[in-house]
Each structure stands twice: as structure tokens, then as C-alpha cells.
Write a structure and sequence with these properties.
The complex is a heterodimer. By secondary structure, chain A is of the alpha+beta class. Chain A has 18 helices and 25 strands. The chains are: A alpha+beta, B alpha/beta. The complex binds guanosine-5'-triphosphate and magnesium ion. Chain A: Its main location: membrane.
């Protein structure tokens, strides 16, 4: 079995302990008086100086009466999107005070002086240096038998009879042994009980099993940040892998394949391309990068968003767009659904209307269209769905994964010559026994580096030409609209501006903001501009920090009617980092700051982000999308 | 242009084992381009390209299908109404030639009776220099290809999408075998159902395809 005898190094991570809610208990860090004084200017800074007003509520927490006075300072001129309407100054003062109290108490319990950092390995929490050969040995996917046990992450898809179908690493020789062992463990456990085998965990090692007879999916992890969380992360990864398998095969095909022959080799049904996609998926899900090397050039794609999505319960990312533009796009989708076309005489069918037979001479062009997406750079710009059905995020992610495997958009020298694509896909959470048919076409707008991608999902495999006509209509509408053709590229390009600079929160280096109800998130755009190796390590470092933040012990406090969850963490890594999590039933904010920032700055800046995101939620999130 | 030649619309489907070069042939024909590492087609891709054959303009509506086994069951959807088919194999892969035989058989059984089929042995560039040597990469001889074509009444070409050898010739030959049909009257020629109340007069998104150089 794979095991790791090395003792786990203690992460130089300091967690906050439960604070007493006492208002004046903070002793270290900032003196509370310095921000709770009567200095109105300071008070304004607390709750974001850009707010028009700070609402003061005194009920709720039974805190000492505040001496804060309402700000009379006028709002400085700000770009229009920065001005918050008064009702959105939603943080009752007790909450702000409570935040300070919490942070200061947390700081008090940690050692404020930066100790400098020893080399720290984020993958194993040891002091072993991460260099390129280390990644080669422990991280990069390798299909060689040799070196198999050194890998920190393994994924297997096996038949219930123990035959390997897919493995992230290793060759058939090593796999056969492991497969047999795993299926034996699972089978002998489940034989004696009604229980499903779920996992084995021990120090620095975890194996999670998903039994989807006739398949068994297994993830084995020795990656430090994956072990910080409960089983949910690895289980979510396994279900992403399973969802992809279903997307290409569908459940009945898998079942039928095994029906008579338990040793059926599913590998014959999966193509080399599918196995490559599984490699990309498993590597992205674990390490936030994937190997896209072709015969000549070594190349890697670095993108932590797949990992972050599973960390955030499969939340998906939306493209930032003003709600006017989004509404226009939504209208185009809806009007496309209503388009009528003339039926040729031969297809016209008589139908009864009153007592007269009349000829039905038109039909709805897009009657088979079920779901539509406009996608920009893997983010959803606009989405159409039937009133009665929604797609789950898992299915949307699988769809986006599939899309990224199609020929990279815009590779054709002549845009006019790009083909229309038409392929079957099983969106398993929607219906795991049938295929939808997906029409894909790219639209290249002037002044935009990447194309907009239109996806039309139809229930009818013979509806290609109807989807093509619908796409013609949608693209023509977009290009003909003055507003859309000029503002859409502009706004989409703006999505790459760092939000922390737009929001003037310089201390916050990066943040993620999630709306819970829609299960969608935005994050500050990440730019990886160094060499590949450094980018990979940077990306993994971000995964480490966010996982550590979300797994740190949090404190729950009641503010009025809502429960707020707070986490404050510091890491003595590199230059030092501060992490702050603020969540309630509506949102989750994850902030990373460089260095050890003061509670004043931390709270002011994170509340500014929350306020801004809530205020602009219509432009940041698409919600359920538009329905027909 | 002083007088417009009549335009015939031809539905054409490409069939053949995975990785024999179907998409590459289409890319060569449509964009006069080649990619060393073309990714496999998923499902099918639809393209159009005009081509002048004699005094006629032929507008090909091309279905480039995926060779992967799991899409095989969708093939009838694409060849059902096709007037022409390219059955492609890789002259360095004997298995792909066997697969080509199966496709020809299936087309004769299932497709329309008057379909024009071209058998195409692709990747000629790989063997062009060393046709005679013993360790040639060639695994399917030109004679085998010809024999099958004659037996089944097919056009036959050995092509290279990479060097563009014979690529346009295939499409011209097919074009000249296709009988004159009713002229195209609408964008989706062979398809019933005129767009009624839709105003599609926006930017012509893909209508200014240039004639190919054949
Ligand atoms: N040397 C050489 N390579 C070729 C030629 N045509 C295609 N290839 C290469 O063969 C590989 C497969 O080509 P594709 O055009 O994708 O093959 P396909 O038949 O469309 O494959 P599927 O879409 O999977 O059915 C690619 O790497 C091409 O670059 C050719 O004429 N000569
Ligand atoms: Mg292809």
C-alpha cells in the first residue's frame, strides 16, 4: 500500500481560538480605542470610506453602547460603480465592532512578530524543497510503472472485478496488483455489512472510494492541502471524473458493456482523447495545472479554478457584465426560442381549430433547444434554460471541460472557415441515460482577444440545421446591436482588470467571493506571468492558502438575524500571509493579504469587497439564468 | 463577374477510421492549411466550401465525422442524405483500409443509391520518397486501393493533406460526377424550411467564402 512514513511537519499556521465577545478584551495589536474613539474619520474608514453613510444599529448583540458617531463627512467623488447606495451600507455597527474584536483577539493569540520563513513544502508540509525535479517525481502525471509509488496523487477507475480502466499514473503491470487489492478491500468490507466503503485515512494518507457498480472510482491523496478538508473534496473530485465518463458514454452504455462480461475492457470504448481529458481533469482538480505537451513543445496550462470550484461546492464562474448587456443577451436567447419558420407545403399538417381544418404553416425554429450558453474564457456570460429544468453545476463544469477539449477556438487562420460543431453529450445529473446534442460555434468580436462561444443543447439529434439557423440569428442580433457590438468586447476585456485595484483594496492580494444561492463565484483575475515552473508553484500555493483558510476553525457569531462565520489565519510562509474568511447565509468571502495586516485595514477592505459584490451582484453573477 | 454560373449544392460526408486525416483533408480544402497535431473530431463538424468545376460552381456542404468508434452509430445521420462520400484510410495503417472496406459496404447498403463515393488513401507524403524501399512506411499498396475502387465502382485517389497532393483533385472529380441539380436558393440549400419572419440581414457571418483554387 502506499504510505508515508515521514511525520507530518507542523505547518507554521496559527489558528485563531474562540474569542470572548467582550468588547474591550483585546490587548494586543491595535488598541481598540484607536478605532473606536470619537474620531469620526477613523470610524468612516472602518466601514469603507466610500459608503455614503454608516447605518447604526444598537440592538442585537447586547454590546456596550457605541460611542461612534455618524459620519458627516461627504462622500468623495468616486467612479460611479464605486458609490454604494445607502441601503447597502449593510453592516450594522455592532458587526463591525465585533469583527474588530474577533480579529484583534485572534491577533492577540498569535505571535505578531514575523519569524521569517524556513523553506516550506506546501504539498507535504515538510521542509523539502520544491524544484522542477521534485514536481517531476511527485506531481507530474507519468504512465511509467517505475516511480509510481512516489506520486502524491492517484486516481483509478476500475471495473468491479478489479480490472484497471483508467489510472492517473502507472502502467498495467503495477496497476493490476493495486486494482486487485483495492477491489478486494472494498468487496470484503461491503460483503459483511450493508455499508458502502467510503475511505481510509491515516496520518498523511487518504483513500476515498466511490462505488458505482460496475465501476469503482478511487482517489488516493498525500497532498497536504487535500488532507486538511473532510472527505468531501476528494469525493467531489471523484464525482467530476465519473461525470465526465458518463458524459461520453452515458450510464446505460457502461452498464451494458459489463452486462455479460464482468471483464469487459471499457478502454476499448474510451478513446485516447478521453483518457487524455481524464489526465487533464485529474491534474487540474488536484494541482491547478495540467500538462498540455504535444509532440514538440512542453507546455502546461495553469489554472486553479477547477480546484477552487470543488472547494466551493462546485460553484461556477460567471463573466462580469453590466446587467443591461446581460439582459440584452438574455432577450436574444428568449426571442430565438420564439422564432417561427415557414413549413414547406409537404410538412404542413392539418389540425383542428374550432370546426375548421386549417393548415399549420409555421413552426418554432428552436423547438428542440433546451439549454443555451454564451461562454467567454470558460466563464458563463448568459444562460437560457426551460422553466421546468435547470442544469446542475457539475454538468455545466463537464460541459465546459468538453468544450475546452474541442479544437482551440480561433486557431483557423480564417475565421470564416471555422466549422460548426455538433456532438452528443450525456449530462448525467440532468439525465444519465440519454444524450443531448450540442451545437458549438465561436463568434470573433473585434477588439476581443478570445472568441465568444455559443453552445446550444438540443434534445433532438436531427436538429443540427435548426440550431445552426438559431445561431445565425443570435450572432446576427449581437452584431447588429450597437450597444452589444461595442460594449460587449469592452466589458469582457475589463473582466481582466484586477478587482483589488478597482476596489482600492491594496492590502488584499487576492479574493474569492461566492454567492451561495446561485452557487456561483467570482475571483480576482490571476495572472501567471513568470516561467512555467514558478507559475505552477504559485498556483499550488494559492490552493494551499485557500484550502488552509477554509479548513481553519471558524467562529460563528450572530448579527441580528444572520449567523456570520469568521476565520482569521496567519501563515509564516514566504513574506507572511494573512487569510480572512467572512461568510453568512448569502455569501462567502475569502481574502488573502500579503504580510500581517492590521485589523483596521483587514476589516475595512473586506467589508468594502462584500459591499461592492453585493451591490453589483447582478453584474457579477448570472443567477439561474433566463428561462423560457 | 459577368454571368453567374449555376451553383449546385452538394452534401458530402467524410468517413474513415480515427486519425486517418479526414479533418486535415477538409482543412486543406477549405483553408489551404495543415496542422501537425490536429485534435480528434468529437461528434462531427460542418463546413461549407465553394469550388468551380468546369462552368459550374459547386457548393460543398461538408460533414467531417469523428472516426472514434463510439460515434459510429451516429454516422447514418450524416450519410443518409449525402450525395457524395469520401471514405478515407491511411496508407501506412492496414487496419484503416479494412475499416474503409466496411464503410464502403455500409454506404452501398444504407446510403442513397446514386451516392458518389471516392476512396482516398491519405498521408501520401510519408511514402512519397521511398516507395520502393523495403522498409517503406507504406502498408497499403496503390494496387490494393485501386482494386477495391474498381470492384465497388469508386473514384480513387492517394492524397496528402500535408503536402496538399491530390486534395483539390478529389473534390473536382466528385464535382464532375455529380449531376446538375436544382440551383441553391437559400442558405441551407438542401434543407426545407425557409426562415420566415426572421431578419437575417445582419452581417453575413460566413457567406464570403472565397472560391477554392481548383
Ligand atoms: N504526414 C501526414 N500527416 C497527416 C496527414 N493528414 C493528417 N495527418 C496527421 O494525422 C493526424 C490525424 O489527423 P486528423 O485530420 O485529425 O484525422 P481525422 O481522420 O480527422 O481523425 P478523427 O477526427 O479522430 O476521426 C494529425 O496529427 C494530422 O496532422 C497527411 O497527409 N500526412
Ligand atoms: Mg477529424
Amino acid at each position: 500500500m502506499i504510505s508515508d512514513d515521514k511525520p507530518l511537519g507542523r505547518p507554521p499556521m496559527l489558528q485563531s481560538k474562540k474569542s470572548t465577545h467582550s468588547f474591550l478584551s483585546s490587548t494586543a495589536g491595535l488598541n481598540p480605542a484607536s478605532f473606536l474613539g470619537t474620531d469620526a474619520t477613523t470610524a468612516v474608514t472602518l466601514a469603507s470610506s466610500d459608503q455614503a453613510e454608516i447605518a447604526i444599529f444598537e440592538e442585537g448583540l447586547g454590546l456596550a453602547k457605541t460611542t461612534l458617531s455618524r459620519s458627516s463627512r461627504s462622500v468623495s467623488p468616486q467612479p460611479s460603480f464605486m458609490v454604494l447606495p445607502p441601503q447597502l451600507a449593510l453592516d450594522p455597527l455592532p458587526f463591525v465592532e465585533l469583527l474588530h474584536d474577533f480579529v484583534n483577539t485572534s491577533i492577540a493569540k498569535t505571535d505578531d512578530t514575523y519569524k521569517g520563513s524556513k523553506p516550506f513544502n506546501i504539498l507535504t508540509e515538510t521542509e523539502e524543497d520544491i524544484d522542477e525535479s521534485y514536481l517531476e517525481e511527485k506531481v507530474h502525471i507519468s504512465k511509467k510503472g517505475e516511480g509510481f509509488t512516489a506520486k502524491l496523487k492517484q486516481f483509478f477507475i476500475l471495473s468491479s472485478a478489479g480490472k484497471p480502466i483508467y489510472s492517473m499514473n502507472g502502467d498495467d503491470d503495477v496497476l493490476l496488483g493495486y486494482s486487485g487489492l483495492i477491489t478486494t478491500i472494498v468487496a470484503s468490507f461491503e460483503d459483511g455489512t450493508d455499508l458502502l466503503f467510503r475511505s481510509i485515512s491515516q496520518n498523511g494518507f487518504r483513500m476515498v472510494v466511490m462505488n458505482k457498480s460496475p465501476l469503482i472510482l478511487v482517489a488516493i491523496s498525500r497532498v497536504s492541502y487535500e488532507l486538511m478538508l473532510d472527505l468531501k473534496l476528494l469525493e467531489s473530485q471523484l464525482s467530476s471524473v465519473y461525470n465526465y465518463l458518463l458524459a461520453v458514454l452515458s450510464a446505460p452504455v457502461i452498464t451494458k458493456s459489463f452486462h455479460n462480461r464482468m471483464n469487459y475492457d471499457l478502454r476499448r470504448v474510451l478513446s485516447a482523447q478521453d483518457l487524455k481529458t481524464l489526465d487533464i481533469l485529474t491534474s487540474m482538480l488536484t494541482f491547478g495545472f495540467s500538462d498540455t505537451t504535444d509532440d514538440e513543445n512542453k507546455s502546461y496550462t495553469v489554472d486553479p479554478s477547477m480546484f477552487i470550484s470543488s472547494l466551493l461546492d462546485d460553484a461556477v464562474q460567471c463573466a462580469r457584465l453590466s446587467s443591461t448587456l446581460r439582459a440584452k443577451l438574455d432577450d436574444i436567447f428568449v426571442s430565438c426560442k420564439r422564432l417561427k419558420v415557414n413549413l414547406p407545403q409537404s410538412e404542413a399538417t392539418p389540425f383542428l381549430q374550432g370546426k375548421l381544418y386549417t393548415l399549420e404553416t409555421t413552426k418554432l425554429l428552436a423547438s428542440d433547444l433546451l439549454f443555451a450558453f454564451l461562454i467567454y474564457d470558460n466563464k458563463i456570460v448568459s444562460h437560457l434554460h426551460p422553466k421546468t429544468h435547470c442544469l446542475e453545476n457539475k454538468d455545466i463544469s463537464t460541459l465546459l471541460l468538453m468544450l475546452s477539449q474541442l479544437s482551440p477556438a480561433g486557431e483557423s487562420k480564417n475565421v470564416q472557415e471555422e466549422p460548426d460543431l455538433w456532438f452528443p453529450i450525456c449530462l448525467a445529473r440532468f439525465n444519465d441515460s440519454g444524450f443531448l446534442h450540442c451545437y458549438v460555434r465561436h463568434l470573433h468580436l473585434p477588439n476581443l482577444s478570445r472568441p465568444l462561444t455559443l453552445l446550444l443543447l438540443s434534445g433532438n439529434k436531427n436538429s443540427f440545421f435548426e440550431m445552426k439557423q438559431s445561431a445565425n440569428y443570435i450572432f446576427a442580433k449581437i452584431c447588429k446591436s450597437k450597444t452589444l457590438s461595442s460594449s460587449l468586447p469592452e466589458e469582457l476585456a475589463q473582466g481582466y482588470l484586477p478587482l483589488t485595484s478597482v476596489l482600492k483594496t491594496p492590502q488584499v492580494k487576492h479574493f474569492i467571493y461566492k454567492r451561495r444561492k446561485a452557487n456561483q463565484y467570482i475571483m480576482d483575475p490571476l495572472t501567471f506571468s513568470k516561467d512555467t515552473f514558478e507559475n505552477i508553484v504559485d498556483s499550488m500555493f494559492i490552493l494551499y492558502l485557500y484550502t488552509a483558510l477554509s479548513s481553519s476553525k471558524s467562529e460563528e457569531v450572530r448579527v441580528g438575524a444572520s449567523m456570520k462565520k469568521l476565520t482569521y489565519t496567519r501563515w509564516h510562509l514566504k513574506e507572511g500571509f494573512t487569510g480572512f474568511l467572512l461568510a453568512d447565509e448569502k455569501y462567502e468571502l475569502y481574502c488573502l493579504c500579503k504580510g500581517f495586516v492590521t485589523s483596521l485595514v483587514l476589516i475595512e477592505q473586506s467589508l468594502r469587497i462584500v459591499n461592492w459584490c453585493e451591490n453589483y451582484r447582478k453584474r457579477l453573477f448570472i443567477g439561474p439564468g433566463v428561462q423560457f | 463577374m459577368s454571368f453567374a454560373p449555376s451553383t449546385t449544392s452538394v452534401k458530402l460526408v467524410l468517413l474513415g477510421e480515427a486519425a486517418v486525416g479526414k479533418s486535415s483533408l477538409v482543412l486543406r480544402f477549405v483553408s489551404n492549411d495543415f496542422q501537425e497535431n490536429k485534435e480528434p473530431t468529437i461528434g462531427a463538424a460542418f463546413l461549407t466550401q465553394k469550388c468551380t468545376v468546369g462552368d459550374r460552381t459547386i457548393k460543398y456542404e461538408i460533414w467531417d465525422t469523428a472516426g472514434q468508434e463510439r460515434f459510429a452509430s451516429l454516422a447514418p445521420m450524416y450519410y443518409r442524405n449525402a450525395q457524395a462520400a469520401l471514405v478515407v484510410y491511411d496508407i501506412t495503417k492496414p487496419a484503416s483500409f479494412i475499416k474503409a472496406r466496411h464503410w464502403v459496404k455500409e454506404l452501398h447498403e444504407q446510403a442513397s443509391k446514386d451516392i458518389t463515393i471516392a476512396l482516398v488513401g491519405n498521408k501520401y507524403d510519408l511514402v512519397a520518397d521511398d516507395n520502393d524501399s523495403d522498409d517503406s512506411l507504406r502498408k497499403v499498396s496503390m494496387e490494393e486501393g485501386k482494386a477495391l475502387a474498381e470492384e465497388e465502382g469508386l473514384l480513387f485517389f492517394e492524397t496528402s493533406a500535408k503536402s496538399s497532393h491530390n486534395v483539390n483533385e478529389v473534390f473536382v472529380a466528385i464535382g464532375s460526377k455529380i449531376p446538375e441539380a436544382k440551383p441553391v436558393t437559400e442558405e441551407l440549400g438542401s434543407r426545407p424550411g425557409n426562415v420566415g419572419r426572421i431578419d437575417l440581414s445582419g452581417p453575413a457571418l460566413r457567406s464570403n467564402l472565397s472560391d477554392c483554387a481548383c
